[in-house]
Amino acid sequence: MTLTDIARFSVRRASGHTPELELPPAGHFIGGSFVPGSSGAQTEIVDPTTGQSFASVAEGTADDVDAAVAAAVRAQPGWGATTPKERSEALSKIADIIEASHAVLEALESANTGKPQSVSEDDVSSAVDTFRFMAGAGRALSSLAAGDYVAGHTSVILREPIGVVGVITPWNYPLLMAAWKLAPILAAGNSVVLKPSEQTPLTTLKLMELIAGVLPDGVLNVVTGLGPVVGARLADHPDINLVAVTGSVGSGKAVASLAGSTVKRVHLELGGKAPVLIYADADLAAAATALRTAGFWNSGQECGSACRVLVHESVAEEFTELLVREVSTLVVGDPAAGADVEIGPMVSEAHFARVAGFLQRALDAGITAAIGGRPLEGPGYFIAPTVLVNVPAGAEAAREEIFGPVITVETFSDEQEVIRRANDTPYGLAASVWTSDARLSMSVPRKLDFGTVWVNSHLVLANEVPWGGFKGSGYGRDLSLYALEDFSRTKHVMINHSA
Ligand code: NAD
């Protein structure tokens, strides 16, 4: 039996009646209530398991953004003047509401993105934890103690909100990425205008419907619409003090360049292409099992995905066989086809065509698919879980962010060479190192140019620790006290008390 014969993936379809979705109102959420868009134009929302439209939302304009920013400007001073305890109580209430509405949010998230149920469940429970963590951490946010550094003068460092923050989120984790931004931004006393991805706005709008009334009107606003219209206006609006983007490198560059016109602060969480360094002494079975999840979570549409293996040549064959066996057991299907489905469709037809294009070009270039390597039969945008082997250094599939269920395998022979190759990428978000050598487990992470480096693990996150990249993956940190610092500002007040 050759490795290619090991599995022929097919798409498991939902049978029978799927429960009714509780769709959110279709307008923008501005000043505490839903309002229609100023243009009347609508964006269709598509189910990626069928390609059929099942909802529509307002396609926002720059005028809609201006109305939302005006509401946020009015609301911010009052919100910024509340105590950390009061803000903490509001965030805890939001966490409780999300938790109580988890089933509604999970169903909507899976319907809009095609995510397997287990991923939507994890997204919603992680969003709850983010609000709970920030509810507590916001009360612990502090600065240097007051001190006398000049004779007769006392210095006090105040920590203040930044003001009005614009947020732009992606389609791969619509609710979770909103939570990662909103929780620290609100905890730090800012008001917000958020634009969800035009492809996946439903859970963000549902969240607004569910939590309306928890925050003072205007503190939290959502405008739906396209990146180059609504996103661009958030980036160049003179009354927005910081703009935060989670998305592709191209969108991050566009936003940062527009933000320059008003010298506003920019917080960027962009793409990734995580290298996975597997040394000869690694526990190969453990690595293969971990990559079954870490390389294919959210159908590979994950910025920290373990997608680029660099394995020592002496164990490459053994590791590849273990990995392919693991991947062969993945269950592909509609999210509604069962709780055990692990791989859903790509989010859109355009993204499906993009991933399929990467695979076709890799095969055309002589790279081998040890498993998968092709789109699956429609309807919907499914791609077979894939492991590409014999991938030469510098190949497109190993350099570019494919953002689908695809792992590439390259081999290496030298400890130093593999570090150079791992770093030879425009991205710097995440990486992992697999070894049982204590020296390598301490020394290699220090040499890797990535914001997160796991040792003998991959894609394990916690709210207490920061997430964010270097180089083309952007700057700024989500999660942890570092996010609270990013979304607040320090002010030095110096008091002259000399006689
Ligand atoms: P995308 O860049 O296409 O879109 C992200 C957001 O930016 C959307 O809301 C979009 O409307 C907006 N946008 C697009 N062009 C814009 C412009 N010119 N001005 C202002 N806004 C604009 O990204 P995506 O396809 O939705 O998401 C996938 C990308 O996000 C991947 O590259 C992935 O790695 C990255 N991502 C990164 C992280 C992280 O934490 N670093 C997390 C999730 C996703």
Question: Nutshell version of this structure?
Answer:
By secondary structure, the chain is an alpha/beta fold. The protein is 37% helix and 20% strand.
Characterize the structure shown.
The structure is a single chain. The protein has 499 residues and is an alpha/beta fold. It has two domains: 28-270 and 473-493, Aldehyde Dehydrogenase, Chain A, domain 1 (3-Layer(aba) Sandwich); 272-462, Aldehyde Dehydrogenase, Chain A, domain 2 (3-Layer(aba) Sandwich). Helix content is 37%, strand content 20%. It is built from 15 helices and 21 strands. The chain has helices spanning 62-80, 84-100, 102-113, 117-140, 174-187, 202-211, 227-236, 249-259, 284-294, 316-328, 349-364, 396-399, 415-423, 438-447, 480-486; strands at 28-30, 33-35, 42-47, 52-58, 147-150, 153-161, 164-168, 191-195, 220-222, 242-246, 265-269, 275-278, 308-312, 368-371, 386-389, 406-412, 427-428, 430-434, 452-455, 470-471, 488-496. It has a seven-stranded mixed beta sheet with strand order 14-15-16-13-12-18-19, with helices on both faces. β8, α6 and β9 (220-222) form a beta-alpha-beta unit. α3 (102-113) runs antiparallel to α6. The chain starts with 27 loop residues before the first strand and ends with a strand. The structure holds nicotinamide-adenine-dinucleotide. Residues 168-173, 177, 195, 197-198, 226-228, 231-232, 235, 245-248, 251, 254-255, 269-272, 303, 401, 403, 429, 467, 469, 473 line the site of nicotinamide-adenine-dinucleotide.
Oligomer: single chain
Shape: globular
What's the total number of strands? 21
Q: Tell me the number of structural domains.
A: 2
> Might you state the CATH topology name of the largest domain?
Aldehyde Dehydrogenase, Chain A, domain 1
Count of DSSP H/I helices:
15
The CATH level-2 architecture of the largest domain is identified as 3-Layer(aba) Sandwich
| Sheet with the most strands: spatial strand order | 14-15-16-13-12-18-19
Terminal residue distance: 91 Å
Spell out the CATH superfamily of the largest domain: Aldehyde Dehydrogenase, Chain A, domain 1
C-alpha Rg, in Å? 23 Å
CATH class of the largest domain: Alpha Beta
Low-confidence stretches: none
